[in-house]
Amino acid sequence: MQENNRPFNVLIIESGKRVFLVLQCYAEKQALGSASQEFLDMRINPAVWELSGHLVLKRREDYDEASEATLCRFLFEASLSGAEFLELKMRVLEFLASTSPEE
């Protein structure tokens, strides 16, 4: 991910038994200038917290007008496409296979 300049977070739980890799797709869209102005105005920063369902709406108007449809559109914008997910999955599995200890 770092070699491809893709921002991400890693969440490690259960003493390393489970590892979650969370791409920061929205941060990348912001940097490229392709993020929706509607969501830029809301100032939501979708990190692990937000992608887990806890959204902090910073403006009263956003809270008053919040709807399931709006939040679903936002989460869609902050997510990988199906093709991007498959590409990431392939890269992660290749990396893990290349670093696994020999048996």
Automatic annotation (TrEMBL):
InterPro entries referenced in this protein's UniProt entry, alphabetically: GDPGP (IPR026506), GDPGP1_C (IPR058865)
Gene Ontology cellular-component annotations: cytoplasm
Organism source for this protein? Lolium multiflorum (Italian ryegrass)
- What is the name of this protein? GDPGP1-like C-terminal domain-containing protein
List, for all copies, the residue spans of the domain called GDPGP1-like C-terminal.
1-97
Q: Name one GO biological process term.
A: glucose metabolic process
Top-level taxonomic group: Eukaryota
Q: Spell out the molecular function terms from Gene Ontology.
A: GDP-D-glucose phosphorylase activity; guanyl-nucleotide exchange factor activity; hydrolase activity; nucleotide binding
